Amino acid sequence: MNQFIDWISQPWPWYVAGPMIGLTVPALLILGNKSFGISSSLRHACAICIPAGIPFFNYNWRKEMWNLVFVLGVLIGGFVATTFISNPDEIVLASKTQADLTALGITDFSGLMPSDIFSWENLFTAKGLVFFVLGGFLVGFGTRYAGGCTSGHAIMGISSLQWPSLVATIFFMLGGFLMTLVFLGPLMKLVGF
Amino acid sequence: MKVVEKNIQEVVCDAPNSQTTGEKGLALVKYLILGVLFGIVFVKAEIISWFRIQEMFRLDSFHMYGVIGSAIVTGIISIQLIKRLKIKSIAGEEIKIPKKEFRKGQIYGGFIFGLGWAITGTCPGPLFAQIGSGFTVIIITLLSAIAGTWVYGKFSDKLPN
User: Fold this and answer.
1) Cα angle, residue B48 at apex, residues B134 and A151 outer, rounded to 5°
2) Which of A18, A161, B6, B91 is the most buried (most CB within 10 A)?
3) CB distance A91–B22 less than 8 Å?
4) Residue B13 lies in a domain
5) pLDDT tens track, chain A, 193 positions
6) Is B45 part of the contact surface with chain A (CB cutoff 8 Å)?
7) Burial group, residue B92, by CB count within 10 angstroms (0-12, 13-18, 19+)
């Protein structure tokens, strides 16, 4: 048993994780005739808590409770994996990425997230404003405008051979490349790295 | 045989629910379990890591491309099998995959999400797994993402689409 725990505590390779994520597609279809998509949960949260008479949030969200239950599961899964089968070693990062990020001012490479950025101390600072507030806003606004995120478009949409999802995915990547390779450096300098 | 069914739903959602019968209480537990498994994979494959997303956008590692690519291949094969073998859902219904219509939002919105993806290092799924993993400050990112969704909903009819 201990050997098994040690074994699954190592980081899982892409060829294990990818197919497992892909299997979520048929699992949801067969379990409940549901299309995979996670950003919808954010819309349901709006529809439940702050619909404010906006037509976009006026729909039968009770029928979509499954989606919120699913993301609650994702949260619990994150807790389970981190608490019971967490990788004891530091994350192994490509040396070029590590060098580039060090040049940008990142110093802590020990966990899955850099504590230089993602800590409560940064909440009411320029770092927090950019990385939590602005970043989160762009994710929420952009995914809803695009009608889906990596799960709804890149995985579910392309898997069902729908070209609009391929277009969306190409623009996800373009936005990401532009931010990472062009804007991120100046932005980090601006917020005090 | 058409792979994609026409979307007849009033609400166009990226995670449409085609099941006709309602599900409450214990019937929802299966989605919870599926979510837990999914969250575990997110953490163990380090998809929730801001570093891994940086590697992906810097083209320094194949890992994320392998994950997303093999997930898509698995999805394509699964959907083809469901269609060709006419597999039904456990409620006995014909499985429907609503069509996604092309809109300009997939370009503008997709690009905006991409910018946010590179800043936060997360898409909406890993957000929840990050919070569960103890990065509790990501609750702020989540609230901001919900706010972004709300602002889109508020102004959706004024945006080019």
Assistant:
1) 125
2) A18
3) no
4) no
5) 788 888 899 999 999 999 999 999 999 999 999 999 999 999 999 999 999 999 999 999 999 999 999 999 999 999 999 999 999 888 999 999 999 999 999 999 999 999 999 999 999 999 999 999 999 999 999 999 999 999 999 999 999 999 999 999 999 999 999 999 999 999 999 999 9
6) yes
7) exposed
Per-residue pLDDT tens over the stretch A90-102: 899 999 999 999 9
B131 lies in a domain? yes
**A8 and B44 in contact (C-beta within 8 Å)?**
yes
pLDDT in tens, A96-128: 999 999 999 999 999 999 999 999 999 999 999
- The pTM assigned to this predicted structure is 0.94
CB A155 within 8 A of CB B67: no
Instruction: State the angle between helix axes of A135-146 and A40-49 in degrees (0 to 180), rounded to the nearest 10.
Output: 100
B37 found inside a domain = yes
- Cβ contact A106:A114 at 8 Å: yes
Half-sphere exposure of A140 (CA within 13 A, CB side): 28
**Which residues form the domain of B30?**
25-60+98-158
Is the distance from CB of A79 to CB of B132 less than 8 angstroms? yes
- Nearest chain B residue (CA) to A122: B137
Please report, for chain A, the start and end positions of each structural domain, with discontinuous segments joined by +.
1-86, 91-192
Residue B125 neighbours by CB under 8 Å, 6+ apart:
A38, A71, A74, A149, A150, A151, B38, B42
**What is the complex's ipTM, to 2 decimals?**
0.96
Name the residue among A17, A73, A137 with its Cβ closest to that of B31: A73
Distance (Å, whole) CA A67 – CA A46: 13
Residue B89 lies in a domain: no
Find chain B residues with C-beta within 8 A of A48's C-beta.
none
Contacts of B14 in chain A (CB under 8 A): 35, 37, 39-40, 143, 147-149, 152-153, 156-157
**For chain B, how many structural domains are there in total?**
1
